[in-house]
Automatic annotation (TrEMBL):
InterPro entries: Put_Metallopep (IPR043998). The keyword Hydrolase applies. Residues 171-214 are annotated as: Disordered. Its EC number is 3.4.24.-. One of its GO terms (molecular function) is hydrolase activity. The lineage of its organism: Bacteria, Pseudomonadati, Pseudomonadota, Alphaproteobacteria, Caulobacterales. Residues 24-161 form the Putative phage metallopeptidase domain. Keywords: Hydrolase. This is Metallopeptidase. Residues 205-214 have a biased composition (Polar residues). It holds the Pfam family PhageMetallopep.
Length: 214
């Protein structure tokens, strides 16, 4: 079951998202896309959500269905949200209820980081030829590696070294970000494939086409 969070509710992700767009320069591209009428939506997912014994915390998608069911899919989303979004962010409602304000902020920031603008082979941003609108894409994660490999061999490649250096520089990093419960996973929905998990802290993965999950 899914519910639509209100724009200004006490437990809504919207105020967090809107604040991060203003304060986190890493979301500058997404903020610019929203200024160009790219639309984002949130849904809260109730009930068990996960796979292989790991809880899914969130997912960022470019909503899409192929074939004869596409008109129905579009209608259902429009009826539910009031519009058809370019990016759809799903959040685990059960986890969200128990999460701290900082944990919620981190999850929203993570899922929002999956939302980006497509680039051409030269790295220039892509736009629709007819409308001039930015073309959405789902970013994959910066790092893909197994914890045991890092434990045995450390930062053996440059992206890992940069990732670990960023972690060491994080100001006021909390000791424990995850409520008591099973290991967690996040998913990113379109174009990237990555999967990881951990027993004590949020792990971030992207898998399959068109999605970005945590």
């Amino acid at each position: 079951m899914f519910t639509v969070p209100t724009a200004d509710g006490a437990d809504s992700p919207w105020p967090i998202f809107e604040r991060l767009l203003l304060t986190h320069e890493e979301l500058g591209e997404l903020a610019s896309m929203i200024d160009s009428e790219i639309r984002v939506a949130f849904l809260m997912r109730l009930g068990d959500w996960g796979k292989h014994g790991r809880m899914t915390l969130g997912m960022c998608c470019i909503p899409s269905v192929q074939g004869e069911l596409k008109p129905l899919f579009v209608q259902l989303l429009e009826d539910t949200l009031g519009y058809f979004p370019d990016f759809l962010i799903l959040l685990n409602a059960d986890w969200w209820e128990e999460a701290s304000p900082l944990q919620r902020e981190i999850l929203v920031f993570h899922e929002a980081m999956h939302a980006g603008q497509a680039k051409d082979k030269y790295g220039a941003p892509r736009f629709h030829r007819e409308t001039g609108a930015p073309i959405p894409t789902i970013r994959g994660h910066d790092v893909e590696e197994f914890t045991p490999v890092v434990r045995r061999y450390g930062a053996w490649k440059s992206d890992l070294a940069e990732f670990l250096a960023a972690a060491a520089e994080a100001p006021n990093a909390p000791d424990n970000l995850t409520p008591t419960g099973p290991p967690v996973v996040t998913v990113g929905c379109q174009e990237e494939a990555d999967d990881s998990s951990g027993p004590e802290e949020p792990q971030m993965t992207a898998e399959s086409t068109n999605r970005g999950e945590r």
